Amino acid sequence: MTAQPITSPRPAADGAGEALLSVRDLTVTFGRGRKAFRAVDGVDFDVYPGQTVGLVGESGCGKSVTSLAIMGLLPGRGNTVGGRVTFAGEDLLSMPADQLRDRRGRDVAMIFQDPLSSLNPVVPLGVQVAEVIERHKGRNRSDAQQEAAAMLKKVGIPDPDRRLKEYPHQLSGGMRQRALIAMALACEPRLLIADEPTTALDVTIQAQILALLKELVSESGTALIMITHDLGVVAGLCDEVNVLYAGRIVERAQRHDLFATPRHPYTGGLLASIPRLHEERGRRLTPVPGSVSDNIPWEQGCAFAPRCANAVDVCRQQTPTLVPDRDAVGDDRLLRCHNPLTANPVDDTPTVEEDAR
């Protein structure tokens, strides 16, 4: 049985004490029997109104599967989802399908990683954006088209009336991503999940999209879950960060604490692999050795042990639990590690945040 992580309530940005989204012991298992694979393994976290929470890790660590499970978008067959996902006091996992469809788009919205595959290629953009407004706001087609044009303008798409008549392939990658953001925010959801929304974009457009998200979330008070493998994105956007590895959270901390004193060797490895502007030109980066597939089962020890320079014998013999880190700077910090990194602050880590701007 997976050990229950200890969670610590965080004050909401608007002063409310109740979590908007509460995820408890979330598990997602693909397949059955001996071939079963647990992609998400006992994940716990809270998101408060107005808060931006990051889910960080390499590809294959369970970030996107976690978001799809929260949204109820995993295939109906071939997987098993367990635990509780409570949104505004209601469990999304046990909610009837028709009620969950009403929630999606209206109260909880998602921006997907690939806008070209997320948009219907044979339907004009205006119809797709207006459809969300018609479905959840009850507007007629004419009013919905006007609101759609206003949303496209709000997210920075020029000449929105003309763009509404165009098809997704006629737009640039940045415009398609902005269109997805417009669709997600059209009904003013209380929670927005962004699944690596800048992965396929160039650096300049990435910065524009992140600035847009930060501005829109700040204006509306919407809570945001940012899923990314890019710690530069986290540095400029998130309030609290959850680092995932092999389906489990291995470290949780406030953004500044995490960058100043990474405690889990995996977090330290991710930070060490980021180039910094102030460092000597030509200096080699220090990547995390191996790949995500180089794991041992969590039931046998720490899954990261085969890749970890800090691993000791107990790491391969005993499963670490997520517990408060008493030695680190910052309150309510959680860590899953037998032999963590030193708690001494790193002098140059604030420059990571500068590089993300």
From TrEMBL:
PROSITE patterns in the record: ABC_TRANSPORTER_1, ABC_TRANSPORTER_2
Primary site of residence: membrane
Subcellular location, record wording: Cell membrane
Record key words, sorted: ATP-binding, Cell membrane, Membrane, Nucleotide-binding, Transport
Top-level taxon of origin: Bacteria
One GO MF term: ATP binding
Domain ABC transporter: residue ranges: 21-271
Protein topology in the membrane: Peripheral membrane protein
Matching InterPro entries: AAA+_ATPase, ABC_Ni/Peptide_Import, ABC_transporter-like_ATP-bd, ABC_transporter-like_CS, Oligopep_ABC_C, P-loop_NTPase
NCBIfam families xref list: oligo_HPY
Similarity field: Belongs to the ABC transporter superfamily.
Protein name, per record: Dipeptide/oligopeptide/nickel ABC transporter ATP-binding protein
Organism: Ornithinimicrobium pekingense
